[in-house]
Automatic annotation (TrEMBL):
GO terms for molecular function: proton-transporting ATPase activity, rotational mechanism. SUPFAM superfamilies: Vacuolar ATP synthase subunit C. This is V-type proton ATPase subunit C. Gene3D superfamilies: 3.30.70.100, subunit c (vma5p) of the yeast v-atpase, domain 2 (1.20.1460.10), Vacuolar atp synthase subunit c, domain 1 (3.30.70.1180). Subunit of the V1 complex of vacuolar(H+)-ATPase (V-ATPase), a multisubunit enzyme composed of a peripheral complex (V1) that hydrolyzes ATP and a membrane integral complex (V0) that translocates protons. V-ATPase is responsible for acidifying and maintaining the pH of intracellular compartments and in some cell types, is targeted to the plasma membrane, where it is responsible for acidifying the extracellular environment. Subunit C is necessary for the assembly of the catalytic sector of the enzyme and is likely to have a specific function in its catalytic activity. InterPro entries: ATPase_V1-cplx_csu, Vac_ATP_synth_c_sf. GO terms for cellular component: vacuolar proton-transporting V-type ATPase, V1 domain. Keywords: Hydrogen ion transport, Ion transport, Transport. V-ATPase is a heteromultimeric enzyme composed of a peripheral catalytic V1 complex (components A to H) attached to an integral membrane V0 proton pore complex. The keyword Transport applies.
Length: 401
């Protein structure tokens, strides 16, 4: 069963309170009222605040950028699923930095080497965006090359399967089935299944120079049967006309062992190329998913930091945590969070406000939506991030809106 995660932020505003004391209160509340809800700290570092105006501008960009980063992670995940299905292998567990995705989330640690905390927030966000964009572009190129090979294989398979009226006949005909001499030639006739008796009783009379009892069936599918017929070369055109009048199709065919062998070799090479490219692309997708998901979590940490300051004020004083409530326990967890937020902020955790809040989020069409809480700063409205993970992907608590 899928595990759903919330990433939340709570204000540390009570006089004398600390993040540690608020964490203890949250642990106590969860253990007493929703003991089956896993709870973890989500470690957001002390990032560079900058100016209040820069945070407001960045907050608007974060909403749009988050959709992009989310979308890329899902594209890679879907590509992995397609590749595993094409290879007939069981789906492997996705990992981030060598650990399961949920473990990475619940034990998240900021990568100081990749994203220095003293860098401007806009620079960190820009670095994440450019890195994810490069991975997306690389995936498009790799996927296009792989799909091109698949398309070539599909084209060959279509020629070698399907209706006898259009498919390649070379793999159905043997050398001994064909006669080709100075005067005699063997033709291949496509006969509707329901007209086989008519063909066998009439083909000798379609022209005076047809070899008696020369027709034999080579193959039959759900619609047609493939028959040979031998006749004099000089009456081929007349025979085709008479056969067409009777509802029989004479296929143009020239038996060529060289062409047949060439097609076989081409097919084998394409199959080898397809498997090699599938394996290579799958390995790349595993590594890239890890990279993108890690970037996504760093992005979420930045967004929590920015929106917490905009919501709760300066200096930064908040507690971020990850919870995994069950559907039945969701209401209890909301009540706990509401109590810890105090009277000023408790309204943002009430269930009845969800519909209005979701409408302000502006992302109802995303597969991975955002659980948001609204705050008002005079005429300004911003959306505060709250995420959940389902099957290692962030999805909405509200469902499709």
């Amino acid at each position: 069963m899928a595990t759903r995660y919330w990433i939340v932020s709570l204000p540390v505003q009570t006089p004398g309170a600390t993040a540690a004391s608020l964490w203890s209160r949250l642990q106590d509340g969860v253990s007493r009222h929703s003991f089956d809800t896993p709870l973890y700290r989500f470690n957001v570092p002390d990032l560079r605040v900058g100016t209040f105006d820069s945070l407001l501008a960045l907050s608007d960009d974060l909403v749009k950028s988050n959709v992009f980063v989310e979308g890329v992670s899902h594209k890679i995940r879907r590509q992995i699923e397609d590749l595993e299905r094409a290879g007939g292998v069981d789906s492997g567990a996705l990992t981030v930095d060598g650990v399961p995705v949920d473990t990475y989330l619940t034990r998240f640690v900021w990568d100081e080497g990749k994203y220095p905390t003293m860098s401007p927030l806009k620079e960190i966000v820009g670095s994440i965006q450019s890195q994810v964009a490069k991975i997306e572009d690389d995936m498009k190129v790799r996927a296009a090359e792989y799909n091109n090979v698949r398309s070539q294989l599909s084209a060959i398979n279509r020629k070698q399967s399907g209706s006898l009226a259009v498919r390649d006949l070379s793999n159905l005909v043997k050398p001994e089935d064909m006669i080709s001499s100075e005067h005699l030639v063997t033709l291949l006739a496509i006969v509707p299944k329901y007209s086989q008796k008519d063909w066998l009783s009439s083909y000798e009379s379609l022209d005076t120079f047809v070899v008696p009892r020369s027709s034999k069936q080579l193959y039959e599918d759900n619609e047609y049967a493939l028959y040979t017929v031998t006749l004099f070369a000089k009456v081929v055109d007349n025979f085709k006309v008479h056969a067409r009048e009777k509802g029989f199709q004479v296929r143009d065919f020239e038996y060529s062992p060289e062409a047949q062998e060439s097609t076989k070799q081409e097919m084998e090479k394409l199959l080898q190329d397809q498997e090699a490219m599938r394996t290579s692309l799958l390995q790349w997708c595993y590594a890239s998913y890890s990279e993108v998901f890690s970037s996504w979590m760093h992005f979420c940490a930045v967004r929590i930091f920015v929106e917490s300051i905009l919501r709760y004020g300066l200096p930064p004083s908040f507690l971020s945590a990850v919870l995994a409530p069950s559907t039945k326990g969701e209401k209890k967890v909301r009540s706990i969070l509401e109590e810890l937020c105090g009277n000023v902020h408790s309204i943002y955790w009430k269930v009845e406000d969800d519909a209005a809040v979701a409408g302000l989020g502006g992302e109802s069409e995303c597969k991975i939506d955002e659980k948001s809480r609204l705050y008002e700063d005079e005429a300004l409205q911003n959306i505060f991030l709250m995420k959940e993970v389902k099957d290692f992907e962030l999805e909405t608590l509200l469902g499709d809106n």
